Amino acid sequence: MAAITMEVDGMINDESRRKLREMNLGEIISGLEAQQAEPATLGLPFDDRMQRLVDYVYQEKYNAKIQRLIRSARLRFPQADMQGILYEGRGLNRELLGNLSSCQYIDAHQSIVLQGFTGSGKTYLACALGKQACLNQFRVLYIRLPDLLMEYGDCAAIIGSPKKLLNRYGKIPLLILDEWLVSDISDSELYFLFELMERRSDSTSTIFCTQYRKDDWIKRLGEGVQAEAIVDRYAHTAYWIETGSMNMREYFAKPRK
User: Which of 5, 23, 161, 243 lies at a CB distance of 3.0 to 4.6 Å from 116, suitable for a disulfide?
Assistant: First the structure.
């Protein structure tokens, strides 16, 4: 408190600046400098100035946290947002997507399946939902299933590495799995996915982006007991959203009138 109140009507000294930066409170310095540049603010009572400073620091730290979450999510389309979703002609349920924007499904450990043809906007919609989760301060990670399986393959022969990989991906509050079942799954990859889904089921949320309908999932996974378990945990309980047949790449490539 001494560092904050010192020379409140003038610029704080270098030692106070050093201490604030050491405590990772550089936003206080910026906030005080902003107040110094506003004559109207300087004339306010101390309590009002302090309240404004607290609000400023809180907002700056919140914004910094959100930007860190968005960067670490590695979204394919980081610019995606729920306000940018095109509804016309796609059959999307606006009310459902509006409800999902609240991110209560993450608190409830529910999942989402985005199913549609290539180019129908599945990835953009998933990234928009992922970004919305970041704005609600949830940790998110986007990854293509082929890349995840390649990562598994690289560590499969190293003792202890698959378990570390499962622990890493098993704890992420919202995992976005793009290109779900786009390629054939080997027995070892199926076992890895089964273990991953077992860890995530009922404790986290997952967004699947896929071309395949529910009936095709077991076939794509090999029709075994583990395949049935994965389908039972997700395909029948998740929010199922069909993104339609409109090619969004073609739509946005056309010149707008």
Answer: 243
CA nearest neighbour of 209 among 137, 109, 95, 128 = 128
Domain coordinates in residue numbering, the chain: 2-73, 82-253
Pick the range with the lowest mean pLDDT from 44-48, 159-163, 211-215, 224-228: 44-48
pTM over 0.85: no
Identity (one letter) of the amino acid at 153? G
Element (DSSP H or E) covering residue 243? none
Q: Decide: helix, strand or coil at residue 92.
A: coil
Tell me the C-alpha distance between 23 and 134, whole Å: 25
**Separation of alpha carbons 243 and 209, rounded Å:** 10
The CATH fold assigned to 82-253 is: Rossmann fold (3.40.50)
CA angle, 95 then 171 then 24, to 5°: 95
Sheet holding 174-178, edge to edge: 140-144, 174-178, 205-210, 112-115, 239-242
What pLDDT sits at residue 256?
56
